[in-house]
């Protein structure tokens, strides 16, 4: 299958770190699950997460939960670089490692950290997806940049209030 055909079945996530969100984790997880199920109903079956704390990790956990419940879906992890998680607390690191171990595919988008590695990762995800599910609070930053990039290149965006 060509990359173009594969892309038509993929969704990527973008969203804020937990400390920037204005709604509860429970509410956001519920809305993410609704949108993931809608994507599956629409024929999308591969989900790409950028593996950051917060929305990316939660979305990955929901995809893995649904996959475990029998949904015919796959999880791709698009990590910005090896060692991305090393500065996090133990609980976030544990969740990160568990998701990587359960993922269907892991991609390290950049070889090492750089100031642009997160934007490079975000653009890679959008370039490999047919839809973006965004949890957005209206603030400037990586999530807004990813939404703006997706709009610029014509990838539809489903926005969840963050």
Describe this structure in words.
This protein is α/β, with parallel strands linked by helices and 162 residues long. It has one domain (3-161): Rossmann fold (3-Layer(aba) Sandwich), CATH 3.40.50.450. 44% of the residues lie in helices and 19% in strands. It is built from 6 helices and 6 strands; from the N terminus they run αβαβαβαβαβαβ. It has helices at 3-7, 25-41, 55-68, 90-102, 117-127, 142-153; strands spanning 10-15, 46-49, 74-79, 105-108, 131-136, 157-161. Strands 4-3-2-1-5-6 form a 6-stranded parallel sheet, sandwiched between helices. Helix 3 (55-68) links the parallel strand 2 and strand 3. Helix 2 (25-41) crosses helix 3, helix 3 (55-68) packs across helix 4 (90-102) and helix 5 (117-127) runs parallel beside helix 6 (142-153). It is globular, with a radius of gyration of 14 Å. It starts with a helix and ends with a strand. The model has no long low-confidence stretch (mean pLDDT 96).
Task: Please supply descriptive tags for the structure shown above.
44% helix; globular; alpha/beta; six-stranded parallel beta sheet; Rossmann fold; 162 residues
Summarize the structure.
It contains 6 helices and 6 strands, in the order H-E-H-E-H-E-H-E-H-E-H-E.
Report the sheet-strand fraction.
15-25%
Oligomer category: single chain
**Roughly how many Å apart are the termini?**
36 Å
- Helical residue percent band: 40-55%
What count of helical segments does DSSP give?
A: 6
State the secondary-structure class.
alpha/beta
Low-pLDDT runs? none
The whole-angstrom Rg is 14 Å
CATH architecture descriptor name: 3-Layer(aba) Sandwich
Number of domains: 1
Mean pLDDT over all positions: 96
